[in-house]
Amino acid sequence: MNTLKRNWWFVARTTGFLFVATTIVGAYFWFYKIAPMRHLASRQWLETHSEQARWIEEQKDYKRMGSSPDLEFRGDRIGFYGDKSWFMWLEGKASTDKNFRVCGCTETALALMSNQDTNSWEDWLKTNRNKTQEEWIQDGFSQYGVIVHPPPDQRDVEPLLKLIGRKRWNFLMGGPQGTNAPEAIPDYVQYNAFRWLRDSGFKPGQFTFSNATEVATQNLTLALVKYSQMEGSFPANNNLGVLAFGKQSDGEFPFGVPWIATNKIAVIVYSAMILLLLSGFSMMLLPGKRKKCKSAIPPCISGS
What we know:
The protein contains 17 helices and 2 strands. By secondary structure, it is mostly helical.
């Protein structure tokens, strides 16, 4: 007991240091390390943030936590928005990290990014590693007898629409199609057919108006309806999952940015706020008015 009393300040300071260190470490994990995971699990956060912000947060989760994609419950977008670099990251984690969870979501994400399905991604990469993502997607279409051209041209439209119009096989829930439902094609093929058209600047309304007879005779109506549905989920102006030949939307107002939203106005407003705050605090902290002494002799003594 006496020892504790003699070393009280040391014990108190050590305990205080441990409290502070624990708080800092906890804050690091809460506000940085697992913050993306918390955000993606929060309905309120998702409702108040854009699709672009969600994808940024999802990428942070992969980089910080090394998480496995969850397309079923969390609705991860890596398969839809990921480029070749994300494909290589996911395939590398699945092939080399023994603690990485590999499931149907992983396989589906890889299939969406590559437009392929294979028994061994490691073997597949041996002959396809040096190809671009667009070339992977082209090769995937060729397995269904469809040849597309980079950059896309009008010859691609009808064959891709016919792919979209066919019956769909749910790859995530059904697994590798094999010989099942021979009239159907995997949904990852239809998604890539959609975005190849979308990123080529395809306009369904304009196409229908200009090719009304072809649309009717080739049974393309259902395909155009499906295309419009997918466009609602993956619009071009999101600038997400856009292929190399696709045109990025500038995201600006069609008639220019309103003056109130310009960076110049923002700088002026923020600067004015800071200046007024600093001026206000400075004036509040000015010393009070000194009390004047009525007589020089004897000296003025406070309290006399």
